[in-house]
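Hello forum,

I keep getting stuck at the same step: I have a sequence, I want structure tokens, and every attempt I make locally crashes halfway through. Rather than fight my setup again tonight, could one of you with a working pipeline run this one for me? It's a single chain of 167 residues.
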Amino acid sequence: IPRVESKLFMDKDVEEFISSTGTQDDCVMEIVKRVEAIVEVNMPGPMSYRSVYKTYQHLLTQEAENNTDQFLRGEHDLLEYQRAIEKHKSLTDKVMTLIVIVPMHLFELNCSKMNKFLCDRSNMLSNMILRDIVFRSRTVNKKICEQYDGIVTRITTIPDSTEDLVT
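Reply #2:
Ran it on my machine without issues. Output:
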């Protein structure tokens, strides 16, 4: 790379090119060691902030999905479904209140992707429960419609005898 001075002044005493430094130069090695030491000193902050997410760890593993699947295998009334959905909504609300950008001396943690993932995961679990409610409701509604159709068919048929009318 040519030096600016060599182009501006055209003086023979000025070095014509910028000399590059190698990664093995002593000054570079010293600076790398200093930067590594500074980074190492500042690591406990971000590492300790992970504890904020301990309460949401089940959303990061398959545990939450397994619990929801197990819940859906059982028979529940609408109140139990409501409680399960509200539990997931509450989790989503709590995650949404977490700090998105956490300043930490040398570092700045951007937790937006993690928070979004946790919210999406909790919403997905709520949606699983809602889909199950919809499926079960449709099944019950179909049975009711079939029973109603049977009643309508029975009522609209004209009996051949008095005995058929009574039975």
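Helices lie at 4-9, 26-42, 44-49, 57-60, 63-73, 78-96, 112-156, 162-166. If your local run keeps crashing, start a new thread with the error log.
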